[in-house]
What does this fold into?
Amino acid sequence: MTTSIDLTEHCLSSQTLISGVMLTVKCDQVQLANGNISQREYVTHPGAVVVVPMLANGHVVLEKQFRYPLQQVFIELPAGKMDSGESMLATGQRELKEETGYTAGQWVKLGLQHPCIGYSNEVIHIYLAWQLLAGQHQRDNDELLEVFDASFQDCLNMIENGQITDGKTMIALLMAEKYLACHPQLIHL
It folds into this structure.
């Protein structure tokens, strides 16, 4: 049996550089496990949820949305940040309804991901939702997107050919693929 080395870094001081509406940028002085002192700059994030919404025909509900930092339209799954005091499931249910108009009768948590471990504490929780009922979306005034659906295989093909490059969407679809392979009775693809 091998012995693990303690790699923990300990905060000596912390400074908030920028505090925005959703994100905060911090700079901490830390002591490394070897005793050296270093600096860590990072972004704090409230956490988020991404949903893989499956229609009865096995298609996935997707969105096209312009993302300002990269100046392009991306294909994504419905997702959004958690509000203070809101559960992960409640966030997923809210975001699915707000962005697409759909509600879901069945939900299962597939897991989570840490998308930016080098510079953020963001955690994205991943859900699969099915037994969808269509309704009216409730988007914010600054939220413009196009909702469409595609077969699950088409979604996987879009990952392979570079049409889907959003990390949370790629991970969520691949996790859903694994889950559905073990539970084929849920949704017939």
Q: What stands out?
A: Residues 167-182 form the longest helix (16 residues). Residues 9 and 180 are 39 Å apart (CA to CA). The chain has a mean pLDDT of 94.
